[in-house]
Design brief:
Blueprint (H helix, E strand, L loop, with lengths): L2 H15 L2 E2 H8 L3 H13 L4 E3 L2 E3 L8 H4 L4 H12 L7 E4 L3 H9 L7 E4 L2 H6 L6 E4 L3 E3 L4 E3 L1 H7 L4 E6 L3 E3 L3 E4 L2 H12 L1 E7 L11 E4 L6 E4 L5 H9 L4 E3 L1
Parallel strand pairs: 4-5, 4-9, 5-6, 9-12, 12-14, 14-15
Antiparallel strand pairs: 1-3, 2-3, 7-8, 10-11, 11-13
Length: 250
C-alpha cells in the first residue's frame, strides 16, 4: 500500500473510530509498526491529528478568545443562526447557550416574537434588548473565555427549568467522542441544560467537525439535529447521516 493510501485510511479510521492504535493497524496492513508510527508523526507535524503514545487521536481545537472567535466563519455563523431561528415558534421556551454563532441566532429571532429565552450568557442576553421576548438570565461564576455563568449556582437554577429547545454551543463535534468543549465546568453546565430540554440542536461551523476537545458534554446520539453549512463537503457529515441524526443545512 502506498504512503498516500495509508494516510487516507488513517484519516478515515480516525474519523470513524475516534482513535488509531499503531500495532493492530500495522498488523492489518501487513507493514511494520515503525511505518505506521512514521505516518502518524508526519501527519501530526502537518496538523492532521494528535500524536499520543501508541497511536493517535483527533486534533484538539484551539480556544481563541471571544473577540477572535467573532472573526472566524462570521458569514457562515450568520447563515446557521438564521436557519436555527426558523425552528423557534411563538410561545416556546428556549435556552440559548453562549458563543458567537448563537449570538447570530439571537439576532435572527423576529423582534416581535413572543417567546421566553433563558441563557447563562450576559452577551446573549444583551442581543435581545430590543426584542419582545422575555429573557431570563442565569447567574453563577463567570467563565470569561466564553462569557457564560458556570458552577453550582448555575446548575441549581437550570435544574428547576424545562425548555422546549436548547441551542448548544460547542468547540468540537465527533461521531465517536461526541460533543465537547475546552472547560470542565462549562461542559457540566451544558450537559445539565441538555438534560432539561425536550430537544437539543447544535450549530456547528465546518472547522469544528471531526475534532475532540478535552471535556465531553454528551454523545451525538442525544442530539435532535445538527445545523450545518450547506457548502460543506459531504465526508464530514456522512457519519451523522449514518447515525440517523437530522442535518439542517443553511
Amino acid at each position: 500500500m502506498l504512503t498516500i493510501q495509508r494516510r487516507a485510511l488513517i484519516s478515515t479510521r480516525l474519523n470513524r473510530d475516534g482513535q488509531i492504535i499503531a500495532k493492530p493497524l500495522a498488523d492489518e496492513l501487513g507493514v511494520s509498526e515503525d511505518t505506521i508510527r512514521r505516518d502518524l508523526r508526519e501527519m501530526a507535524a502537518e496538523g492532521l491529528l494528535q500524536r499520543v503514545h501508541g497511536g493517535a487521536l483527533p486534533l484538539t481545537p484551539p480556544l481563541p478568545d471571544l473577540a477572535a472567535r467573532r472573526e472566524i466563519s462570521d458569514g457562515t455563523k450568520q447563515s446557521l443562526g438564521r436557519r436555527a431561528a426558523d425552528l423557534v415558534e411563538n410561545g416556546r421556551i428556549i435556552f440559548l447557550d453562549g458563543g458567537t454563532t448563537n449570538a447570530h441566532l439571537a439576532r435572527a429571532l423576529p423582534r416581535e416574537m413572543r417567546i421566553t429565552v433563558i441563557t447563562h450568557s450576559p452577551t446573549i442576553a444583551s442581543e435581545l434588548e430590543r426584542h419582545d421576548a422575555e429573557v431570563i438570565l442565569i447567574g453563577g461564576r463567570l467563565y470569561k473565555h466564553s462569557m457564560v455563568a458556570t458552577g453550582a449556582a448555575a446548575i441549581a437554577s437550570i435544574a428547576q427549568m424545562r425548555v422546549d429547545i436548547f441551542f448548544l454551543g460547542i468547540t468540537a463535534i465527533h461521531p465517536v467522542h461526541g460533543l465537547s468543549t475546552g472547560d470542565y465546568e462549562e461542559a457540566a453546565v451544558k450537559h445539565a441544560i441538555a438534560q432539561q430540554a425536550a430537544s437539543t440542536y447544535v450549530l456547528a461551523t465546518p472547522e469544528k467537525f471531526g475534532l475532540a476537545s478535552p471535556f465531553r458534554i454528551m454523545g451525538v446520539d442525544n442530539l435532535t439535529g445538527i445545523v450545518a453549512a450547506r457548502d460543506m463537503v459531504d465526508e464530514p457529515l456522512a457519519p451523522y447521516r449514518d447515525l440517523g441524526i437530522p442535518l439542517l443545512l443553511a
